[in-house]
Every structure is written in structure tokens, then in C-alpha cells.
Amino acid sequence: MDEFITKELKKYASILESHFRDMVDMEFTIEKGIIYVLSARIGKRTAIANLKIIIEMFLEGKIDINDVILKLPYSQIEDLVNKYFLINSEDLFPLAKGLPASPGIGIGTVCFSQMEALNLIRKKEKFIYCKYECNPEDIDIMVSLYCQGVITLRGGMTSHAAVVCRGMKLVCVIGTSVDYEEFKKNALLNNNEVTIDGDNGIIYGGTGKVQKSDSLPEIKVLYELLKMVIKCNIVNIKTAPNVWRLWDIIVLDRRYEKENSGKRMIDKVNMQYRSFKQPTQNEINRIHKNLYSLENGELIIRGFIEFMVSALSTQVSLGNHYLYMRPLLDPAKSIRFVEGKHRGYSYDLAGYQLTGIEFFNINQFIDYFIDITSLKMYFETEFNYYDDLTVNEKEQNKYFPLNYLDHTNPKGESLVINTYKAIKAIVYVNGAVVSLEKLALFYHLARRRMYHWHWYEENNVTKNEIVQYLTSEAYLLKERTRMYYLCEEMNLIKGTYLTPVGMSLVKGQYYE
Fold first, then answer.
1. Is pTM beyond 0.90 here?
2. Does pLDDT of 232 surpass 80?
3. 292 beta partners
4. Quick check: 194 and 92 in contact, CB under 8 A?
């Protein structure tokens, strides 16, 4: 290509990349030495390619930290972390290509019958199970610790083998449509050692070499960026929830499962509730009126609830959740039904559900929340149900289930939360509303305390000293000591009275 044309293309590419702040696909034509740019759009790429591109653009100074956080879908990072990638595919011999039914890399000796597989299991050798198509009798083989993957010559993405392997997180390539005998012959030429790439649907002859995503330099750079963002508070309303979802995935190795709880709703008549009293319909209506519309609702609500459960449950013995958590209402009695349509037909059920939960006595159990005793939140989720929904549609989140009370704990009710997809919510801290504008930042600052809250060290005081001061009622003396002002700063006392926060710290709060 003419040097002038090449230079012009690079110039326009740079302009477009700077404008979109992303990698750009550009369509162009050249006529009589003149370049005409026809269209431009954000370039499509795989998850690993997206991570590499975003990190490289940041290191080149083309985007800032907030761009990095917003341009990295947490679902992609969740798929990448703890994943293995094939790094020597060019050294392997391609045997076949099929549909990538279940992701991952599988390496082992290929076997073509149950007898061969059982023989390898007895020898404790890893293997790849290959058949025309799988059936229920093959389950015992597929669940073996030594089965590294499944290949079928027939079938589609919803075939028996595909569905089972995805559920078991077992690598699977299906529908290869190659000649069975020829495939066996080519596999034999490679000593029956094969490598299957469930991400791309390619089957190789030979032993592949893999690299774990945690060792990717881009993951390490992202980890360092997250540490800096959290420590220096480089967040805004949009990025704060994403920062902590990425942190949960990369650092805490937390996975946000899409499957519903295996628990079933229990309907108990004349139940004597320990933890709460069901609000009246007028009270529920007032709650509805106070809810505000919420972006990133699932990130904030689910992040907050799971963080609080994790932090409190590590301090309180198993089965004693009623000491720090309670439902605020029965979600099954807070449903508003609406009419909806799907494929031109009405839903069997559709509407909105209100769920409420409160964490109390927080400062009793979590040292870095000494000034917070109660975190209360109500959130509204959408639900629908129809019998003709396909499995694929459910996986695409077109089906929203219900939340309900779990009455199985004899010392208090708890919630079974099947969906956190909040479209509206309201959050109270110590009884005061957290405004919509401040909610995301409050969530960030609350979680940040776990790693960067040095109030005790800065004031040379311990939580036990504060509790002893309050229980001895030394704050009643007219002399205003340093300890008095520290407790006042943390809203534990006001004048000569303990505040509700101070009462919770000293005496606790229980629900009968």
C-alpha cells in the first residue's frame, strides 16, 4: 500500500480511537488516492483480548482508570479468573473442529468406549471421552475425577452431552461431524493423546501446554489498579459498584452463581414470628412510594447483603444469624401483579416483589463499624413466569424468580433471596435514608473500611476501652475528657445520654 495512504489510515484510526476511547473497527475505501471512511464502531473481541486491549490503552495513556473499570464487564473477568488457556496450539496437530459446548481445556488419552474409560479409571489415568453421542449410561464415566473432557461427533448446543457437561463444568466439544475411523486413526498417530479447547471448539492431537489466567500480566496489572482505586478513593457513582464486583472476583475468589436456591418455600399457618412483625398494607404502600429507581441495583444490593452476611457470620457462630439479621417483611405478601406479554401471549404470572432485610447490632460484632448499628434496605425486583420458556431463555435472564422466607431455623426467620435484580430500592443507615446520589459512594466507603480504616490507631484507643468507658458510665461526669469526645465523634453519646448506636454497642438489641 502507498506510504501516504498508510500514514493517512493511521491518522484516522488514531482520531477514531481517541474519540471512542476504545479499539475501533473502521471500514474505508480508496478512490483516486483519496481515503473515504465509511463507518466505524467499537471493535468486537474475546474476553482475554478485551482485557489486553483495555490494559494496553491505559498504559499508553489513552484512557483513565475509570474507563478501565467501566470497559471491563465483570462477567468476562469472572470467566477469565482461574481459567486455563492453551499456549502451544501452533505446535499441535488439528484433528477436528466442532461446537464449543462447555469452555476450558481438556488434556488426556482419548478413549472410545465405556470399557476403555473404565480401564483408564482403574489405572488412574486422565482421559478424554469420545463417542458418536452420549446417553444417560455415560454419566458414571463423565463424573469420574479422571475424565478431562467429552467429544461427540453428533449433537448440538442443547444435546444431552452439552447440557450435562456445562452443568458439571466439564470441557466439551460436540458435533465434530468427522469420520469416526479417520479420527481414531489420526489420534493414534499422536499416541492417542489429545487436547480439546472448549473455548474455540478445536480438537488437537498431542499434549497441550496451559497457562492459568492468574499469571497473566494483565490480571496482575488490574489487581494493582484495584488496590490503588480502593485506597485512594478514585471512584464515582458509576464505577464504585463495578470496582467491588471485580475485587470480589479477583481477590476474594467469589462467584456470583446464577442458579436458584435448592430450598423450597414452606407455608406455615399461624406462625409465631420471632424476628419481625408483618407490616400492614398501608405501611407497605408507603415503603413503595419512598423507593427510588436504581442503576446497578444488583451490584449494590447483592454486594452489600453478601458483604454484610460474610463479615457478620465470621464473628457469630453458625445458626445464630438472628442476632444480627432479620427480614423486614414477608416477600410472598408484598407482591404486585401486572399484565405482561411474551410471544404475543400473556404471562402466567408477572409483577413486582418487595423484599426487606435489616442487619442490626453491627457495631457489636464488626470493629470497623463501631458507629453503625443498623443497615436496613428495601428493594423491588421484577418477576415473571411462563410454562413455555426455553432453557436458553432462562440462562439469558428472561426468567426472574421469587424471594421468600425460610422458616426452617427455629430461632428466627431468614430470607431465601433468589434474585437481587433491584430496579428500585431504599437504604437506611442508623435509621437515616442514604440518598440515591450518595448510595454507590456509601457502598464503596463502607466496604473500604475493611482494608483502610485506621481510626483506632490514629486516636490511640481500642474498642474495648470505649465499651468499658460507656459501661462504667464515666460519660455522665461533667468533665469532658478525650474519651468523651471520641465517643461523641462516633455518635455513641450525646450530652449525658447513650445514643441508639451506643445502646447497641453496650447492651445489644434483640427481637422477640
1. no
2. yes
3. 425
4. no
Do 127 and 92 have their domain in common? yes
Tell me the DSSP string of 325-383. EEESS-GGGSEEE---EETTEE-SEEEEEEEEEEE-SHHHH-GGGTT---EEEEEEEEE
Nearest to 150 by CA among 167, 134, 126: 134
Q: How many domains does the structure of the chain reveal?
A: 4
Q: State how beta strands 202-205 and 93-97 pair.
A: antiparallel
- Owning domain of residue 114: 88-208
Strands 193-197 and 172-174: unpaired
Name the burial class of residue 177, with classes exposed (0-12), middle (13-18) and buried (19+) by CB atoms within 10 angstroms of its CB. Answer: exposed
At 286, which amino acid appears?
A: R
Per-residue cell: 51: 482485557
Task: Give the list of residues 6+ apart from residue 21 with CB closer than 8 angstroms, or none.
Answer: 57, 62, 63, 67
Alpha-carbon torsion (61, 63, 64, 69), positive or negative:
negative
443 domain residue, yes or no? yes
pLDDT tens for 65-116 read 999 999 998 888 887 877 777 888 888 888 999 999 888 899 999 999 999 9
Single-letter residue type at 222? L
Report the amino acid identity of residue 78. E
